[in-house]
Amino acid sequence: xxxxxxxxxxxxxxxxxxxxxxxxxxxxxxxxxxxxxxxxxxxxxxxxxxxxxxxxxxxxxxxxxxxxxxxxxxxxxxxxxxxxxxxxxxxxxxxxxxxxxxxxxxxxxxxxxxxxxxxxxxxxxxxxxxxxxxxxxxxxxxxxxxxxxxxxxxxxxxxxxxxxxxxxxxxxxxxxxxxxxxxxxxxxxxxxxxxxxxxxxxxxxxxxx
Length: 209
Hints:
Helix content is 39%, strand content 19%. It is an alpha+beta fold.
């Protein structure tokens, strides 16, 4: 079954919020998931990898700090928090390549690196445990690959990008991953109260006689 990228983005946003992340991070997760689908990856399955880790309740342990030139954390890094920190850092890459250690669902870093490339008007290469991906912000050059965790990710500027992956306008997510996102997304729906049910039904509580 296929879904529009708008459906993917909306579901990813609600699921990330339902998993305990704040709305701002959920919006970034939704954009990242959509971008991965555009590039032909199973964005919902990659996001589901992260949400299964349940980082949100102790998110402070999964936020990166720079130590001896390496972006690292107390425990495996959350790619959403790491990606946001990288793309928002004006000094990232100013002194050469950036190395990040111990990242969960590392493919979620690719959309954030793409944002960095677009802002810097350059081409960036992301090497995830030895597998290379290059992006100019819009296009992506890499083979299909997947991993639920990376020991080391390196981001560096490069001179050129080869032929890019085909762009996609719809997504065909793994059914189990899609179901997980929808299940977690339902946590954002407030339970109906008697008042809301009555208002929704348009019951004539007002007395106009």
